[in-house]
């Protein structure tokens, strides 16, 4: 009884087959080339051209509504101090007969963020369509 052996197992094929890898890379390249133009999700928007001086002139008008929050947490509507909870009602009363429902807001640089957001929520609750944030001119 003889044992049969195969000679083909003596040689080990150590060559790397790169054809499948090249195929996968080409498929990925094609996918990325097709998908990349679709990733451009920027929206072209024309922003209004305005200067700070024009906005300040509008805010300094006699009938403009200006809300201010000081660094010690006090809220003012025009020159009158108001409770932040009643701010929305008082702004609604001032804007009742106006067609332009624009309010200007001044917030102190060191004012509490929560107080500022409460005042802005009161302004939005009054049905204000435009809220202008006033700042100082930068020192040059």
Automatic annotation (TrEMBL):
How this chain sits in the membrane, per its record, is:
Single-pass membrane protein; Single-pass type II membrane protein
Pfam families assigned to the protein according to its UniProt record, in alphabetical order: ExbD
Q: Record keywords: Iron included? A: no
Work out whether the entry's keyword set contains Transmembrane: yes
Name where it mostly resides: membrane
* Record keywords, A-Z: Cell membrane, Membrane, Protein transport, Transmembrane, Transmembrane helix, Transport
Instruction: Write out the transmembrane intervals.
Output: 21-39
Where is the protein localized?
A: Cell membrane
Q: Tell me which family the UniProt entry assigns to this protein.
A: Belongs to the ExbD/TolR family.
Q: What is this protein called?
A: ExbD/TolR family protein
Provide the organism lineage as a comma list: Bacteria, Pseudomonadati, Acidobacteriota, Terriglobia, Terriglobales
């Amino acid at each position: 009884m003889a044992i049969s052996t195969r000679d083909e197992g003596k040689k080990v094929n150590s060559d790397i087959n790169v054809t499948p890898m090249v195929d996968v890379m080409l498929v990925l390249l094609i996918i990325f080339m097709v998908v990349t133009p679709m990733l451009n999700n920027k929206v072209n928007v024309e922003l209004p051209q305005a200067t700070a001086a024009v906005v300040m002139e509008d805010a300094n008008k006699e009938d403009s509504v200006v809300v201010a929050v000081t660094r010690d947490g006090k809220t003012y509507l025009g020159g009158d101090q108001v409770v932040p909870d009643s701010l929305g009602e008082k702004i609604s009363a001032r804007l009742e007969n106006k067609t332009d429902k624009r309010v200007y807001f001044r917030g102190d640089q060191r004012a509490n963020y929560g107080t500022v957001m409460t005042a802005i929520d009161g302004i939005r609750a009054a049905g204000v369509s435009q809220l202008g944030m006033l700042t100082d001119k930068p020192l040059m």
